[in-house]
UniProtKB/TrEMBL annotation:
Residue ranges annotated for the Subtilisin-like protease fibronectin type-III domain, each copy included: 663-772
Keywords: Glycoprotein, Hydrolase, Protease, Secreted, Serine protease, Signal
Main location: secreted
A single GO cellular-component term on record: extracellular region
Species of provenance: Cinchona calisaya
Name the UniProt record assigns to this protein: Subtilisin-like protease SBT1.7
Domain Inhibitor I9 residue range list: 38-113
Chain intervals with Basic and acidic residues compositional bias: 204-219
Cellular compartment(s): Secreted
Domain Peptidase S8/S53: 137-589
Region ranges (Disordered): 203-223
Length: 775
C-alpha cells in the first residue's frame, strides 16, 4: 500500500514537473514571439486606395491592421516610399501580406569606416584652375556621420556670400546645439536617433548630445576634409603643421548626424538620405558601411539611387577590411566607391635597441620625453598571465613585470592607442606596437598617451628575436618631426577593402583611391585625439586614417567639379575622376600595394589614384542616365518588385529585349571569360564583347578632336581589341560608341589578369582599367 501511494506521489510530482516545464517553454516561446525589432517597410505608392487622401494615413492604416500599438518611427517620401516601425516577427510576416506592401526588411546596423593633402593632389599649385565663383559657393555637400563641431575654425564663413537659394534644409536645435551654431559655411545640421533609441533605449545626454553636435570627432573630420575652410597654422601637437583646408573650400556643408556611440542604424540613415534629397544637397558623403546585401535590400544603395536621380553624386567609403579579397562595402554602380592610399608625408619614430640596431616606426606622441638612457625592454606576452597577453588588452599586464620598462605589444583586436593606455596604467614607461602578418608593413601613426612607436611586421619580428635572445634587453625611442617627400607614394593602404565585387562581379570596384592614411582635419572639442576616456587632451585638429578619410576627399573633389561644370550628371563627374586617375608613378613604375610590397591591381586601386587637376578637363566622359541604371537592373534579372524597391517606380523589363551588363556604360571593365566546350570537351578561345559610349566634354561649342585607342595587358594569353580604333568628335556633347572584344585561349582556372584601355587626342588621356577573371 505504501509502495502504491509512493508511486502515485511520484507520478503526481512528475506530472507537475512536466507541466511546469511545458508552461515555462510556452512562456519562453511566447516571450520570443513578442520581441520587437525595427523594420523598414517599402510601399508601392501608386497602389494607395482611393479612400485615402494622404499616403501617411494609408501607411498608418496598413500598420494598424497588424498591430494597434505599433507606431511609425519615420515616414519616407524621397529615398523610398514607406516607413519604419517596431514589430514582432509575427506582425512583420502579417504585414508582408497586406495590399501595397513591397518589402518588410529588418533594420541593419552600419559602422563608421574610420593640410598636406591639397598640396599632394596638386590643388594648391593649380588653385586658379578651379573657379572660386558663385557657382562653386552654391555647391552643398551633405555629410552623413557623427555630426559636427560648429566651433571648428574650418567652418569659418568669412567672405562667403548668402546661403544658396536652392537650399531647403534647416539647422536643428538639441542638446548643446542651437540654430545659431550654423552660419553661411555650415548651412544645415540635423540629427536622426529615432531608430537608434527604438533599439537601444534613450540616449544618455550626459555622455552624448542628442543633437547635431559631434561628440565623437569622426563627422567633423570627414566634413572638414570635404569642404573645410582654409585655416592657417593648423597641426596636431606640431605634427603636419601648415594650412589645413578641405577639398572644396568654398562649398557649403550640411551635417546629418546618423551615427551614435553604439553604431548607425539603417532606419536613421534612410531618414537622413530622405531629408538630404529634400534639402537639395549636391553631393552626399557617407563614410560608413554595413554588409554586402543585394541592392534592393541595402538602405544606402536604395537611398543613393533616389539621390542620383535628383542629380546628387553619392560618395561612399569602400571599407577597412583589406587586404582580403571580396571585402568591399557600398558596391552599387550609382555609388562612387572610394578606397584609401597614403600620402608622401610620414611621422618617424625610431626604436633603438641595446644591440645597436635601429628600426623605423611612426608616432604622433607629444609629451614628457623618455630618459636619455636606455630602458629595460619586455615582451608583453612574457609579462602577462593571459593567453593573449601579447596584445596588451585591458587588465592583462602584470605591473611588477612592466613598471619602468618599455613594452613590446602586438597589433590586433583592441585599438593601438588603447594598448598604450594599458601599458601606462600598468606602470610602463613606453611601448612599441609591432604589426603581425595581418597588417604587414603598413604603418599608421597615432597620438599615443605615452612614448610609443608602431613598426612593421619584419621589424617587429627582428625586435622579438632580440628580446628573446638577450638576457637583459634594452631600448629607447627617438621621435622626429614631420617628414615630407616619402617615396613611393601613394601606395594602397593595407586596410583598404578590395574587390572583386561580391554582388555584381561585372562591375569593377572600388572605383578609385584617394588619401586615407594619416589625414589631418578638424576635430571635436568633446574628446581627445585618441577618443579614449582617459585622454584629457583637447585639439582643434586630429590625424586619423581609414577609407572614412578617403571618401570625403572624393566628395569634396566632386563638389569642385560640380561647381566648375554645373550641368554634369553624377555619372559624368565620377567618370571624370576615374578616367583621369593615375596608376603609375612619375618614374613609370606601377602603384604599389603596401600589403604585398608588389604592384597593386584594379581590384585594389580601381581606376587609380584621383588626380583632380586632370579631372577638371577630362576630354571625354562615360555618362549614365536613370534609364541606363534601370536596364542594368533588368540585366541582373531583377523582378518588378525588386526594381521598385530600388527605383520607386513600376518598371517592367521588356521580355523581347536582351539586357546585358556588358553594355552598361561604366568607365571600367570587369570581364569574365569561361572555358568553351567543343564536341563534349573543353577547347577553343573564350570571347566576350563589351560596348561603351563616350561623350565629348572637351571644350565649348564646335570643339572637337580625334582620339586614338591604346591597349595594354599583363598577359600575352589575353587579347583585347577595340573597334573602331579611332573616334572623331566635331562638337561638344557629341557621342561616339565603340566595342571591345576580350578573348583568351587558355588561362589557369580562377586566375585574374589585368589591362588598360586608353583613348587620347594628344592632350587628354581617357583611361579605363580592365580586370579579367577566368572560370
Amino acid at each position: 500500500m505504501a509502495k502504491i501511494t509512493l508511486l502515485r506521489l511520484s507520478l503526481i510530482v512528475l506530472v507537475i514537473g512536466l507541466t511546469f516545464v511545458a508552461v515555462c517553454h510556452v512562456s519562453v516561446v511566447a516571450s520570443a514571439v513578442q520581441i520587437k525589432k525595427t523594420y523598414i517597410v517599402h510601399m508601392v505608392k501608386s497602389q494607395m486606395p482611393a479612400s485615402f487622401d494622404d499616403h501617411t494615413r494609408w501607411y498608418d492604416s496598413s500598420l494598424k491592421s497588424v498591430s494597434e500599438s505599433a507606431e511609425m518611427l519615420y515616414t519616407y517620401n524621397n529615398a523610398i516610399h514607406g516607413f519604419a516601425t517596431r514589430l514582432t516577427a509575427q506582425e512583420a510576416n502579417s504585414l508582408r501580406n497586406q495590399p501595397g506592401i513591397l518589402y518588410v526588411l529588418p533594420e541593419v546596423k552600419y559602422e563608421l569606416h574610420t593640410t598636406r593633402t591639397p598640396s599632394f593632389l596638386g590643388l594648391e599649385q593649380s588653385a586658379n584652375m578651379f573657379p572660386e565663383s558663385d557657382a562653386s559657393s552654391d555647391v552643398i555637400v551633405g555629410v552623413l556621420d557623427t555630426g559636427v563641431w560648429p566651433e571648428s575654425k574650418s567652418f569659418d564663413d568669412t567672405g562667403m556670400g548668402p546661403i544658396p537659394a536652392s537650399w531647403k534644409g534647416a539647422c536643428e536645435s538639441g542638446t548643446n546645439f542651437t540654430s545659431k551654431n550654423c552660419n553661411r559655411k555650415l548651412i544645415g545640421a540635423r540629427y536622426f536617433a529615432v531608430g537608434y533609441e527604438a533599439t537601444l533605449g534613450p540616449i544618455d545626454e550626459s555622455k552624448e548630445s542628442k543633437s547635431p553636435r559631434d561628440d565623437d570627432g569622426h563627422g567633423t573630420h570627414t566634413s572638414t576634409t570635404a569642404a573645410g575652410a582654409v585655416v592657417a597654422g593648423a597641426s596636431l601637437f606640431g605634427y603636419a603643421a601648415g594650412s589645413a583646408r578641405g577639398m572644396a573650400t568654398r562649398a557649403r556643408v550640411a551635417a546629418y548626424k546618423v551615427c551614435w556611440v553604439d553604431g548607425c542604424f539603417s532606419s536613421d540613415i534612410l531618414a537622413a538620405l530622405d531629408k538630404a534629397i529634400e534639402d537639395n544637397v549636391n553631393v552626399l558623403s557617407l563614410s560608413l558601411g554595413g554588409g554586402m546585401s543585394d541592392y534592393y535590400r541595402d538602405s544606402v544603395a536604395i537611398g543613393a539611387f533616389s539621390a542620383m536621380e535628383k542629380g546628387i553624386l553619392v560618395s561612399c567609403s569602400a571599407g577597412n577590411a583589406g587586404p582580403s579579397s571580396y571585402s568591399l562595402n557600398n558596391m552599387a554602380p550609382w555609388i562612387t566607391t572610394v578606397g584609401a592610399g597614403t600620402l608622401d608625408r610620414d611621422f618617424p619614430a625610431f626604436a633603438s635597441l641595446g644591440n645597436g640596431k635601429n628600426f623605423s616606426g611612426v608616432s604622433l606622441f607629444k609629451g614628457e620625453p623618455l630618459p636619455s638612457k636606455m630602458l629595460p625592454f619586455v615582451y608583453a606576452g612574457n609579462a602577462s598571465n593571459a593567453t593573449n597577453g601579447n596584445l596588451c588588452m585591458t587588465g592583462t599586464l602584470i605591473p611588477e613585470m612592466v613598471k619602468g620598462k618599455i613594452v613590446l605589444c602586438e597589433r590586433g583586436i583592441n585599438p593601438r592607442v588603447q594598448k598604450g593606455a594599458v601599458v601606462k596604467a600598468a606602470g610602463g614607461a613606453g611601448m612599441i606596437v609591432a604589426n603581425t602578418a595581418a597588417n604587414g608593413e603598413e604603418l599608421v601613426a597615432d597620438a599615443h598617451l605615452l612614448p610609443a612607436t608602431a613598426v612593421g611586421q619584419k621589424s617587429g619580428d627582428a625586435i622579438k628575436d632580440y628580446i628573446f635572445s638577450d638576457p637583459n634587453p634594452t631600448v629607447t625611442i627617438h621621435f622626429e618631426a614631420t617628414k615630407l617627400g616619402i617615396e613611393p607614394s601613394p601606395v594602397v593602404a593595407a586596410f583598404s577593402s578590395r574587390g572583386p565585387n561580391s554582388i555584381t562581379t561585372e562591375i569593377l570596384k572600388p572605383d578609385l583611391i584617394a588619401p586615407g592614411v594619416n589625414i589631418i582635419a578638424g576635430w571635436t572639442g568633446r574628446v581627445g585625439p585618441t577618443g579614449l576616456a582617459e585622454d584629457d587632451r583637447r585639439v582643434d585638429f586630429n590625424i586619423i586614417s581609414g577609407t572614412s578619410m578617403s571618401c570625403p576627399h572624393v566628395s569634396g573633389l566632386a563638389a569642385l567639379l560640380k561647381g566648375a561644370h554645373p550641368d554634369w550628371s553624377p555619372a559624368a563627374i565620377r567618370s571624370a575622376l576615374m578616367t583621369t586617375a593615375y596608376t603609375v608613378y612619375k618614374n613609370g613604375q606601377k602603384l604599389q600595394d603596401i600589403a604585398t610590397g608588389k604592384a597593386s591591381t584594379p581590384y585594389d586601386h580601381g581606376a587609380g589614384h584621383v588626380d583632380p587637376v586632370s579631372a577638371l578637363n577630362p576630354g571625354l566622359v562615360y555618362d549614365l542616365t536613370t534609364e541606363d541604371y534601370l536596364n542594368f537592373l533588368c540585366a541582373l534579372n531583377y523582378t518588378s518588385s525588386q526594381i521598385y524597391s530600388v527605383a520607386r517606380r513600376n518598371y517592367s523589363c521588356d521580355p523581347s529585349k536582351k539586357y546585358s551588363i556588358n553594355d552598361f556604360n561604366y568607365p571600367s571593365f570587369a570581364v569574365t571569360l569561361e572555358t568553351q566546350v567543343i564536341g563534349g570537351s573543353s577547347g577553343g578561345p573564350s570571347l566576350v564583347k563589351h560596348t561603351r559610349t563616350l561623350t565629348n566634354v572637351g571644350g565649348g561649342p564646335g570643339a572637337g578632336g580625334t582620339y586614338k585607342v591604346s591597349i595594354s595587358t599583363t598577359s600575352p594569353s589575353v587579347k583585347i581589341s577595340v573597334e573602331p580604333e579611332t573616334l572623331t568628335f566635331t562638337e561638344a556633347n557629341e557621342k561616339k560608341s565603340y566595342t571591345v572584344t576580350f578573348s583568351a585561349s587558355s588561362m589557369p582556372a580562377n586566375t585574374n589578369e589585368f589591362g588598360r584601355i586608353e583613348w587620347s587626342d594628344g592632350k587628354h588621356v581617357v583611361g579605363s582599367p580592365v580586370a579579367i577573371s577566368w572560370i
